[in-house]
Design a protein that fits this description.
This protein is of the alpha+beta class. It has 26 helices and 12 strands. The chain starts with 7 loop residues before the first strand and ends in a 19-residue tail after the last helix.
C-alpha cells in the first residue's frame, strides 16, 4: 500500500561535517583511496572506470546481489549492526508488550523454518477459502478492504496524506495499482526479453496456485484470469514518466463527484470496509485505471476476480510462508527480474522483515548505540553552508527573473531540515505481536499501520513525522513539507570522512546535500511552493526557459545506450539528473567558499579540485547485472551509477578544468551543448 504522494527520493546520502571538519593539529588525509582507482584509463575517456575501477574489481557481484556498490556495502554493515541488536532481544524472555518482546518474538517467528515448513499454506488457507466462497460481485469491494487490513493491495490503492494544494491538511487519496510487475511496460512491450519475462511470470503465478493446493488445470485457468485483469489495468495505467507530472495526477473532487465519475464501484462499501466516514473532498490521482477496474468488475465473471484476489494473497504472503513458497517467489522476482543467483540468508531476511515492520522501535535502539547526538548539530551547520551556496547559484541565473528569484530564496530559506533521527518516536504500545504464526503478525502490523494512517484523515499534517527510519541508508526531499531528511545510517564513510579534508567531504557529502536541496527546484519540486503546496510561483516565461534548459538533459540521457538496444529514459530520470547537476555546482561553490581563505594543497598527487570530483564518483562505485539494468531503466527515476558519473560530470566546467579535459577526450561536450540550469 502506497502512502507517499510526490516524494522525491534520492539514492544519495550524506554525513556530517562543517566548513572545517578537522581537529586542530590533526593531519588530514586526502580522503581518496588510490586502490579504488584504475589509472590505466584516462579521466576524459571513462571517469567512472578511472575513479572506481579498482573498487569495482575488488567487489565482484556475488550470487546474492543483482547490484553491489557503496550503498549496498553500507547496508550490509547496518544489517550486521541490526542483527546484533535484534538477536540480543530474541535470545531472552522479555515482558509482554515491551519493545524487546515484540522485536524478539517477531524475529524468532521469522527464523523458525521448522514451524514455517510444517505450516505450509495453512496460515493463508482461511483467507483463500473465504475468497473462494464469494457468491456475488457485491462482495468484491468488501473483500478488497478486508485484504487491505492484511497488507494486501489489489486493484488500486488508497491512502491519507497531505493535499497537494493544501499541504497542511491530510485528505483521502487514491491512486492506480493492481499490477504486480510494477510497470505497465512489462505487460505491453513485445520485445523478446519482455515477452519472456511475461511467460516466466505466468509460470510463477501457476506455481503459486499449485503450492496452495490447486490442481494444474485450476492453476492454469486462474493464471489466465489474473493476467487478463492485470493486463487490462496496465493498459489503462499511467506510465512511470506520466506519474512524475504532479498536475496531471491531481483530480480533487467531492464524494458525490467520485460516485458519478467512477460509478461502477460501490464506494459506500469501500469506505465502510476501511471504517472511515465519507470525506467531503478527496483526490483521485489517476482516474482512468480505476475506471477500468470498475469496468472489469462489471464485465468479467466473479470467478476471475476470485482468482485475482487469491493470487494477490499468495504472492503477498509467499515470503512469510514455507521454504517452497519463498523459493518460488525468489525464482521469479530475484532471478528472472533481477538476475540474482541466490536468496539472502534467512537471518538477513528476518532482520529486514523486523526492520520493515517495527522500523522506529528498531531505530531507537540503533541510534542509541551507533549515532552520536552531536552529529545533528554539525549537520545543520553544513546544510546552512550549502543553502548559502545554492542561494548564490540562484542569484547568478540569467534565465530566471528577479521576482522568481525572490520567491526561490523564500523557499530555500524555508527548508525543514531533519538529521539523524526523529525528535519524537512512533508509539507502538497498542500493536501486539503474538506467537501464533509469522503471517498472522504480518497482518497485525499491516492493520495497525492502516488504522494509524486513516486516523489522520481530516487532521493537520504532522511535519515532524519521518518517512524513513534512522537506520535507512538513504536520504530524501519531500515537496509536500519542503523538507530534506538525512537518516543516521548514511552519516558515515564514504559519504563523510572526519579524517579527510574539505575537498573529499564537499565532493561526497556536500554534493549529496546539494542534490537534495536542488530537488526543491527540479522539474517536480519547482511546482511546489515554500509551504509544500502545488502552486505556480514562477514569473511568466521563466518556466519555459527552465523547461528548455532541462530538455537538454532529457535529450542527452535519451541517447545513452545502457544495454544493446536499450536506452536510458531521460524523461523518467530528469529530476534526479537535475539534482545531481545542481548538487555538483552548489557543492563545488560551497567548497570554494569554505577554502578561499586557506586554500588546500596537492595531496596524494591530486589537487583539491580533483579530489572533489574523485570523491563524488566514488559514491557511485558498483557492479550491476544486465537484468537489474533493464529493471531500473524501466522503473527507476535514478540514472545508473555509471551515468551519474559519466553523464553528470561532462556538464560541469570545473571538472574540465580540474582534469584538463580537451575536445580530444571522448567525454568532452562542447560548452554550448552542455546542461546549464542551476
Amino acid at each position: 500500500m502506497k502512502k507517499k504522494n510526490y516524494l522525491v527520493f534520492a539514492a544519495m546520502t550524506f554525513a556530517a561535517l562543517t566548513a572545517c571538519t578537522s581537529q586542530k593539529g590533526a593531519k588530514e588525509t586526502s580522503g581518496i583511496d588510490l586502490a579504488n582507482m584504475d589509472t590505466t584509463v584516462s579521466a576524459g575517456q571513462d571517469f567512472f572506470r578511472y575513479a572506481c575501477g579498482g573498487w569495482n574489481d575488488a567487489h565482484p557481484l556475488t550470487a546474492e546481489y543483482s547490484r553491489f556498490g557503496t550503498f549496498e556495502l553500507l547496508y550490509e554493515n547496518s544489517q550486521k549492526q541490526l542483527r546484533e541488536l535484534i538477536e540480543g532481544l530474541a535470545a531472552k524472555q522479555s515482558e509482554a508488550g515491551t519493545p524487546g518482546q515484540k522485536i524478539g518474538d517477531l524475529y524468532n517467528l521469522a527464523m523458525d523454518s521448522v514451524t514455517l515448513n510444517k505450516q505450509g499454506v495453512e496460515p493463508i488457507k482461511p483467507t483463500l477459502d473465504r475468497i473462494a466462497a464469494l457468491k456475488d460481485k457485491s462482495q468484491i469491494i468488501p473483500t478488497v478492504t478486508e485484504l487491505l487490513y492484511n497488507g494486501i493491495g489489489t486493484y488500486f490503492s488508497s491512502y491519507v496524506y497531505a493535499d497537494p494544494k493544501n499541504s497542511s491538511l491530510n485528505i483521502f487519496q487514491m491512486r492506480q495499482g493492481g499490477i504486480n510487475l510494477g510497470e505497465r511496460e512489462y505487460y505491453l512491450d513485445n520485445d523478446s526479453v519482455t515477452a519472456n519475462i511475461r511467460e516466466q511470470y505466468k509460470l510463477y503465478i501457476s506455481k503459486l496456485f499449485v503450492l496452495a493446493g490447486y490442481t494444474e488445470a485450476e492453476a492454469a485457468q486462474k493464471t489466465a484470469d489474473v493476467m487478463k485483469i492485470e493486463t487490462a489495468i496496465a493498459k489503462a495505467s499511467f506510465s512511470a514518466v506520466q506519474l512524475r507530472n504532479p498536475e496531471a495526477n491531481y483530480h480533487k473532487m467531492s464524494y458525490d463527484e467520485l460516485k458519478k465519475t467512477i460509478s461502477g464501484i460501490d464506494w459506500d462499501a469501500y469506505l465502510k470496509g476501511l471504517n472511515i466516514e465519507a470525506p467531503a473532498e478527496l483526490n483521485v490521482e489517476q482516474i482512468e485505471p480505476i475506471k477500468e477496474v470498475a469496468n472489469l468488475i462489471q464485465t468479467l465473471p466473479l470467478s476471475a476476480h476470485i482468482a485475482y484476489m487469491q493470487y494477490n494473497v499468495i504472492d503477498a504472503a509467499a515470503s512469510y510462508l514455507s521454504d517452497d513458497f519463498v523459493a518460488a517467489r525468489f525464482d521469479f522476482y530475484g532471478k528472472v527480474l533481477s538476475g540474482r543467483g541466490e536468496n539472502k540468508p534467512r537471518w538477513k531476511r528476518a532482520v529486514g522483515s523486523v526492520d520493515g515492520m517495527l522500523g522506529e522501535l528498531v531505530g531507537q535502539m540503533y541510534v542509541e548505540k551507533y549515532f552520536p547526538a552531536a552529529a545533528k548539530e554539525r549537520m545543520v551547520k553544513l546544510v546552512k553552508n550549502l543553502q548559502v551556496a545554492l542561494g548564490e547559484r540562484i542569484d547568478v541565473q540569467e534565465w530566471m527573473s528577479d521576482s522568481t528569484k525572490v520567491v526561490a530564496h523564500e523557499k530555500l530559506d524555508a527548508f525543514h531540515v531533519k538529521v539523524g533521527y526523529p525528535d519524537k518516536w512512533k508509539d507502538y504500545s497498542d500493536l501486539h505481536v503474538e506467537k501464533d504464526s509469522y503471517w498472522a503478525n504480518v497482518c497485525r502490523v499491516a492493520a495497525w499501520n492502516l488504522k494509524d494512517m486513516y486516523s489522520r484523515l481530516g487532521k493537520p499534517v504532522d511535519s515532524e513525522e519521518w518517512l524513513m527510519t534512522p537506520q535507512t541508508v538513504n536520504a530524501y526531499y519531500n515537496p509536500s513539507t519542503n523538507e530534506i531528511c538525512f537518516p543516521a545510517a548514511i552519516l558515515q564513510p564514504p559519504f563523510f570522512n572526519m579524517e579527510a579534508d574539505d575537498a573529499a567531504n564537499y565532493g561526497a557529502i556536500g554534493v549529496v546535500i546539494g542534490h537534495e536541496m536542488t530537488h526543491g527546484f527540479d522539474d517536480q519540486g519547482r511546482q511546489f511552493d515554500k509551504n509544500g503546496n502545488l502552486k505556480d510561483w514562477w514569473a511568466a516565461g521563466d518556466a519555459d526557459r527552465f523547461k528548455a534548459r532541462a530538455q537538454v538533459m532529457v535529450d542527452f540521457f535519451n541517447k545513452i545506450e545502457v544495454l544493446p538496444g536499450l536506452f536510458a529514459n531521460g524523461e523518467l530520470t530528469l529530476g534526479e539528473n537535475l539534482a545531481d547537476h545542481g548538487g555538483l555546482k552548489v557543492a563545488f561553490l560551497a567548497f570554494q567558499n569554505a577554502t578561499k581563505d586557506a586554500p588546500l594543497g596537492v595531496v596524494d598527487g591530486f589537487t583539491p579540485e580533483q579530489r572533489f570530483f574523485l570523491a563524488y564518483a566514488t559514491l557511485w562505485a558498483g557492479n550491476i547485472r544486465d537484468e537489474q539494468i533493464r529493471l531500473y531503466t524501466k522503473s527507476d527515476p535514478h540514472s545508473l551509477g555509471r551515468w551519474r558519473v559519466n553523464g553528470a560530470l561532462p556538464h560541469i566546467q570545473a571538472w574540465y578544468d580540474a582534469f584538463g579535459i580537451t575536445p580530444d577526450d571522448s567525454m568532452y561536450i562542447a560548452p554550448e551543448k552542455r546542461v546549464n540550469v542551476w
